[in-house]
Design goal:
The protein is α/β, with parallel strands linked by helices and 241 residues long. It has 7 helices and 9 strands, in the order H-E-H-E-H-E-H-E-H-E-H-E-H-E-E-E. It has helices at 13-19, 55-67, 75-81, 113-116, 132-140, 153-162, 174-182, and strands at residues 30-38, 70-74, 99-102, 123-127, 144-148, 167-170, 188-194, 217-225, 228-235. The longest helix is centred in the first third of the chain and has 13 residues, at 55-67. The mean pLDDT is 94. The chain binds NADP nicotinamide-adenine-dinucleotide phosphate. NADP nicotinamide-adenine-dinucleotide phosphate binds at residues 35-37, 43-44, 47-49, 52, 73-77, 80-81, 102-105, 107, 151, 171-176, 179.
Length: 241
């Protein structure tokens, strides 16, 4: 056991980007999950993640978006956080990454910021069981509506791969992340731990069905700023026996 602190120098933007670079030459989707939690494990304050944020978390949040080909998120988070399109172009394109929303119900508002405040059309991944009029309204409002056979991680990732979107940043929320954990589809978790105790009934960062096995992760990086701990875990080379 050894202490990690104190750190001896600050990282500039280029050094930070190097540390968070996706693996090169990806031939298949690589799923990075980016989330923030309080020190006592809360995923939200009064139903939103905003209260957990800090300048350090914000800096990494924006960098993770610039490094990604696509931002994948569940509709619950889009509704709770009033999602809008990413603003900043990715490191290797002129446009921001699209937001791809997983929604079985297609229950998104055509007038919401997801559709009205974005530089690129959002991708709405939904099911044939979603009411057709909702799907049509979202398409008319500019969404790229895709009806998939199932919204399981394998099918969702296959659709993103078909579009050449390999560097996946999943921003949650807990329901979507829980499904990716259960399906063993998480390659990396970038977790900001905010120096806050929230208490109450806030949920944890992953919920839903338990996987058959525990997923062993390796701690790949730790950064610290003003009490916010930025942890990066990646899939361990040897799974739990
Ligand atoms: N701390 C953080 O970093 C962070 C990040 C994100 C969210 N949050 C918080 O998490 C909370 C939202 O949690 P949540 O679990 O509801 O969010 P979520 O996982 O973003 O959304 C759940 C919704 O996604 C859709 N969905 C996901 N998987 C599906 C599947 N396999 N089939 C069909 N639909 C599927 C469903 O939408 P439909 O109902 O439209 O069918 C479902 O209701 C909010 O309080 C938010 O602030 C925190």
């Amino acid at each position: 056991m050894r202490p990690l602190l104190p750190a001896d120098h600050d990282l500039d933007d280029a050094q930070l980007a190097d540390r968070y670079a996706y693996p090169e030459n990806l031939g298949a989707p690589f799923v990075r999950v980016g989330l923030v939690a309080s020190a006592d494990g809360a995923v939200s304050v009064e139903g939103r993640s905003e209260g957990l944020g800090s300048p350090a978390d914000r800096r990494v949040f924006l960098l993770l978006r610039r490094l990604a080909d696509v931002i994948l998120v569940g509709a619950g988070s889009v509704r709770a956080e009033d999602y809008r399109g990413a603003r900043t172009a990715t490191v290797d394109r002129d446009t921001p990454p699209p937001i791809a929303v997983v929604t079985g119900s297609a229950g998104l508002e055509p007038g919401s910021r997801l559709l009205t405040d974005t530089r690129v059309p959002p991708i709405v991944l939904t099911l044939a069981t979603a009411p057709p009029e909702r799907r049509e309204r979202l398409a008319a409002a500019g969404a790229d509506v895709v009806v998939l056979e199932r919204l399981t991680p394998d099918v969702v990732l296959a659709e993103l791969a078909r579009r050449g979107l390999h560097r996946v940043l999943c921003e949650g929320g807990p329901t979507l992340f829980g499904q990716f954990v259960a399906a063993d589809a998480v390659d990396e978790l970038c977790l900001s731990v905010a120096p806050l105790l929230v208490g109450g009934a806030a949920g944890r960062i992953a919920t839903g069905p338990a996987g058959e096995h525990l997923r062993r992760m390796e701690l790949a990086d730790t950064l610290l700023e003003d009490g916010t701990l930025l942890l990066r875990y990646r899939r361990a080379r040897s799974p739990i026996e």
